[in-house]
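Need tokens for this chain, all 408 residues.
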Amino acid sequence: MNATESSSWLGYALDRSRPRVGIRQLGDRVLLLGRQAGNLATLFAYAGAEAGLRLAVLDVDGSISPEVHCYFKAFDYRSMLYEAFYLEGEDPTHGQLVASAYAAALDLTPEEEAILSAAMQKLSEQNDLAAPSALYDALNGVEGFRGFYVDKLKGRVGSLRALDSARDESFDWLMTGGAFVNFAFAPYPQAGDLASALFVAKILDLLRASASRPDALIITGSHRLFKNLTRFQHSGKLMTHLLEAQVPLILSSSLPVLLNDRLVESFPVRVYSSEAWNSRKAWKQPAALACSYTICDDRSGTSMGFVPRFVRPRRRATDTRLPPPNRANPELTRTILEEITRFDSANRQSVVSYLSPQFLAADVGAEVDRLHSKGFLTLEPKQDGNGPKILAYTVTESGRRLLQELNN
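Here are the structure tokens for all 408 residues:
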């Protein structure tokens, strides 16, 4: 056994004929199930990193222990969300995957997913962003769909218009492996669900043409993306394309009862924590020991228990703090200053709404706040027609000088 093989092992097998359990013997489709799925995902990430595998980790539910973060380049999901929103080229595939991501996160019907696909095609032709704010406006011009479904869908999409992002990092980190993306700090659960689904859609689109790809993709909290719905809802394109992807998959779920049944059946190797294995109604094997895990391998029709190895964090100090957002681009700064100069009663909400089709709403809001804090903008009471006075922005003298510099 060489050094790579010895470091890729997961634990001690309870079967004496097989002293150790390794990652490589489990194949390219592995599902981790049970209340201890987070510990299992931590173990797989640790063993894979120790073995030198280039892993891409999407920690949707934040269940992977911080002890293994130092083995990866860690990112906050907002640092790559801008690129996940971006629709490039006239190929409709990415747009359809993004529409399926929205459908999975919002539990949309097939009719609503079809409306989103039409809107995505329109945005894709314009090389635009699939951000909720841009999508909300694009739904107004979708041909062939009117009335109740569109209005209802706009209300669902509009609830996500405050989804925050920053234009900092590239998906190249994920495609080359060794990257860890944390979704645990999303402002609300649906934001995390949508962001993680958009990441999956972007990765699947890149896998079609990119020469580089990770050795394996780990996704935690998979029941939040691929729900076991009580009635038929969306078409499930995202799940279908994920299962067809030419990349090894390791998915985990701490709530397997909520996980899509078709997804579970598609994974030939499933690893259960003790309580998940012992609660199975159809099991005929001996009960699993507490704190052990059981591998159910449909390829050979066998099951095997093992005790996990110890996860040893690295001793070296590693900075895994979230990357600070970059400043907005000069074009956004210039546009904000020009629009506020042109309109007498511009406030933060009106500026964000007016510029959101052109820029990401989070970027516009962040740049307005920065310009205000730096003294380039000031709030003054202004008369709005015949109504009461309102607080609106005015470009200060320093702001005019900045605008002049940007125009030169």
